[in-house]
Amino acid sequence: MNKLESIQKAIEYTQNKDLKNAEKIYLTLLDQNPKDEPILEVLGLLYMQLGRLKKAEKTLEKAFGINKSPQIIPHLAKVKTILGKFSESLYLYIELVKKEKTLENYKELIQAANKCDNNHAIYKFSIEAHEIFPFEPYFLEQASYSAVYVGQY
């Protein structure tokens, strides 16, 4: 079976909720190329589905380390948040916003800052996001709340 056929089979297993066999295929593909970033990312997501969060974190970190792809950041940050690593999650969202200034990325960043009780980050990024998305009330609300804590009232 070639790589494409293997991936198609793994997707089929995943769709049929046979995650163990999908995992076996991805691991076999990684034996052939341990730095295959897309396969590492998909395997990390599979581990998330299986509830193997430490393994998901390690696999997604390895994928992210290969080329710092922004598409991996939300998954890795989510795992770190679930594991209670809020500061690491916040750092990842800051990196993501530097690369892709989207509404969703700013919201995730501010939520991560809230989990860290980092009012300076909440204020800074809420103001920045409000300038980019002036009609989104969430950012103005977050900036207002955090302003009291950072002395910007």
List keywords for this structure.
153 residues, 0% strand, 9 helices, single chain, mainly alpha
Report what the structure shows.
There is one protein chain. The protein is an all-alpha fold. The protein is built from 9 helices and no strands. The chain has helices at residues 3-15, 19-32, 37-50, 53-67, 73-82, 86-99, 103-115, 119-132, 137-150. Helix 5 (73-82) runs antiparallel to helix 6 (86-99), helix 7 (103-115) runs antiparallel to helix 8 and helix 8 (119-132) runs antiparallel to helix 9. The termini are far apart. The mean pLDDT is 93.
Helix-strand makeup class: mainly alpha
Q: Count of helical segments?
A: 9
**What is the N-to-C succession of helices and strands?**
HHHHHHHHH
Mean of pLDDT = 93
Into which percent range does the helicity of residues fall? Answer: over 70%
Q: Which shape, going by the Cα principal axes?
A: elongated
Report how far the terminal alpha carbons are from each other.
64 Å
Number of DSSP strands? 0
Round the Cα radius of gyration to an integer and report it. Answer: 19 Å
Uncertain parts: none
Largest sheet: none
Strand content: under 5%
In brief:
This protein has 153 residues and is mainly α.
Blueprint of the fold:
Elements: H1 3-15, H2 19-32, H3 37-50, H4 53-67, H5 73-82, H6 86-99, H7 103-115, H8 119-132, H9 137-150
Helix pairs in contact: 1-2, 2-3, 3-4, 4-5, 5-6, 6-7, 7-8, 8-9
